[in-house]
Amino acid sequence: MRGLLLWGLMSALATVPALAADDVVSAVAGSVKVVNKATKTAVVRSADGTEHTFHFVGRTVAHGAKATGAGAKDAFEGMKDGDEVVVHYTAKGADKTAEEVDHVGKDGLKKSVVAVKAIDRGARTVTVKTADGAEDTYHMTANAFRETGKGLDKGGKVTVYYTEEGGKKIAHFFATS
Fold this sequence. Notes:
The chain folds into two domains: about 25-105, CATH 2.40.50.320; about 110-175, CATH 2.40.50.140. The longest helix has 21 residues, at about 1-20. By secondary structure, the protein is α+β, with helices and mostly antiparallel strands. It contains three helices and eleven strands. Strand 2 and strand 3 (about 50-65) form a beta hairpin. The chain has a five-stranded mixed beta barrel. A five-stranded mixed β-barrel has the order 7-8-9-11-10.
């Protein structure tokens, strides 16, 4: 009996890493193609033409929309075809669940094409050179660091999606150019 219990516990623990491996955290920038409030889904077309279908759930958070807040109902408010967004999502198999939706533009994220000059992973900051030659430092959100911060290359050209808070530029997402 004791051996059976131990075997069961070990089997359960062995499956945890396999389950965790299915929940991949990522982000995509693009324009909204279709919003279906009945099925709580949205299709977003990225710059390369790929269409991504996202499911909205009770924990989905929206920023920069008319109604900002948590919950699938709020995540759809103000979202319409053609809107530019960044969707932070988890994937389990082929299913993508939107965790956060950031609207780009008026009342949302700003964006700028920059060259990466230096990366401080400990401080979670990125120093960049702008098109006019000025230097800026962006502080990365936890999502930005987890999703794209480790893949940033010094000298690489990226589009940074950011907000300004308390005199600091806060990077929410980086897209390679």
